[in-house]
Amino acid sequence: MKMHRMVMFVASALVVSACAASDDSGGTTLTDGGGDTHALDASAVDGAVDASAVDATDATDATDTATTSDGATDGGPDAVSDTSADTTADAAPDAAKDVSSDAAPVTAVRVEEIYVDRDISGDAVEYVELRGPVGTSLETLHLRLVDSTGKVTGEVAISGAGAIIPASGLWVVGGASVSKIFTAPHVDETVGISKWGLDNTAGSVQLVDVGATTTLLDVLGWGAAIPAPTTAPKATSEAAPRPLPTAVGHTLGRRPGAADSNDNTADFCEQNGTPGATNGACL
Asked: Are 239 and 265 in contact (CB under 8 A)?
């Protein structure tokens, strides 16, 4: 401990003497503890001072570098956060595009079954059943009803906004009294009597897409051949129209499991009505 204090004392004395002494030439002298004076090279002193300045600059640069490094380090998480935020923001539109691009086209929707009233129960008991891929949008689909004279007696939207083909693959449009003829029917879109009604002698129902342009997707004609409407689309049947059943509750239904051959007589047959359920066997 005593030795340490003595060394500290001698070092302090040397520093004081060095700072206090200088010769006439402007140089710096150092007097040691024995009284001897030693001249110091000015360049060495300058070098020491310059080195200190460099060291200070280096220290500042190091601090700046550290700050820059911190900024870069901070930027990393921020960049990740920004990327994450951007990804999240883009996710919804991208998902919407994916869903839209993956959705089944409306061109796959077909007329599956119709019931035409022939016993004067009224138009409100009649229905048109459609079949299509599950999830298909129905927003732009309409039914055009054509009577025996070729007149379009009604055009109805088959659904409200956002409607799609449900898990059953079926969609039923009909009047408010379908249950008078059929037990536990499932009607998805009920149409008022002022816009609804299928001709009970001969007629046609057209399924059309009214999106960018009006496109005929399917048509079923019954009873007998009828004149074409004055406005497009003008087809009233595929090949020959199908004769109507005569029994109450009997419908024209697409043959179970049969492909669409674009021939109403071949594709449809008389069946027991099943609105909202899978078609039964031909009668």
From this structure: yes
